[in-house]
Input
Amino acid sequence: MNADRAARNVFGGLKRALWNDPTKRRMTEQMPIIDDRVAQKILDLAMRVAEIMLSIGASAKEVTLAALRITHAYGLKSVHVDVTFNSVVLSDHRGGTGDPITLMRVVRSAAPDHAKLQRMQALVNDIEAGMPLADATTEFHTIRRIPFRYRPTVVVLAQAMLGLAVALMYGASWFTTLLALVASLAVALTQQGLAKLRIPLFFNQAAGALVLVAFVVLVTWIGWQGVPLFDSVRPTVLMASGIVLMLAGLAVVGATQDAIDGFALTAGGRLLDLAVMTMGLVVGILVGLEAARRLGLGLPLPSDIVAFGGPLGHAVGSLLIAIAVALINGASTSIILVSGALGVLGWGGWYVLATLLGMPSFAGVFGGALIASFVGSVVADRLAVPSIAVTTAAMVPMVPGTAVFRGLLGLVSVDGQMEAFMHAFDSLFTAAMTGIALASGATLGLMVGAPLRLRLGDHTVAMRSKARPATAAGGTAAFEVVRTEPVEHELEETPVADTADPHPLTKPYEAGE
Output
């Protein structure tokens, strides 16, 4: 008898280790029943917040998470969110308690505005903290109507400062630095004027590149005439300044992050948008260089790679570039300060790896981007600012402007020579590898920093986020009911023996993400 009992115990223990017994599962849970009209208001608020966040620079994952956090905070636990490059769809099948609700919003424009993004993320945090629905809706419309933080003149001057900073990184003379400032200013004014006319960005990029090539060819021709100061100007530095300016707004990091996060449609849309804008830049430069060559004013192909200047000039240039990009993206003062520090930090990582340790350039770029984005993700959470805001500005100093120019100039100057073609292809391949290293390093840094941010913030890491709980007077866990509109059905609570959510929702980001 004892042997049979021991055998049954062993068999039972083995069975429990391998199979779940459905009869042991407590099936009761809280079932909030929310009026259809209120549910539609909740979904509408979540959808509008998601649309604004997507249009001002947030990644698809952050947008999806923000929408789920809002709906769960108000008791809607069965919402599905679908984010693509230019649309947001929210659907709630209502769990059999009402008719399904599906809402869609088209994202008609995309322009970074990191100060507004910071306010939107703060609103989501306030909603989870208990903000009533009516107050949250009012606050959303207040944030939505806030204009861009800086006037167009400030943005144009910040774009011109990009050219000056690049010249400083290459150790250019004061006169070449001044010309880089003028060239960048001309490009910025051209693109701003075309943007007011609603010219597509492809032609906007091409026009900016044509203006840049024309200015560089003019300066080079004046130097050929023996005019003092102009004869020592390096055209490659001027071209690199303009290329970094026109590539500064390209969200390579965001596109790569969406692809790694599994948002294939959104990543594909972003990458195609980046490809079209880059093609506009390439077409403009190629047309300008070919036109100058046919007029007998072709630019000479540099015999060697343009070297960077001293460490101090490079550090100052990286600092100014990061600050300028933060201004262009409408960042607040805290984001500007953090971006500048991260720009110098990223440059420091690149300098140590590529210069002092002798690693390949793209390996140094990967290391610099990884360090800057990792530190930026942690610091951004502590300062309650968007991590994408500070990391994007820190990446721009490592954009491969000179490699792009050397490759394009080499393609124009090939004249059927295979060796020249291979040199041009090598420069463009180096630029592509640098861009991939930049994006992958930045994305990996954000991913590695996410769990550390949660630990530093004393948060519990869960697979999925749950609706915020409240404690009733009797000590029993219950959902908090926020009465914002008249409802036909009150929140019905079924007594539960196990208050754990059987299907928890992920909440990897908290305040400032």
In short: Residues 369 and 442 are 5 Å apart (CA to CA). Residues 418-456 form the longest helix (39 residues).
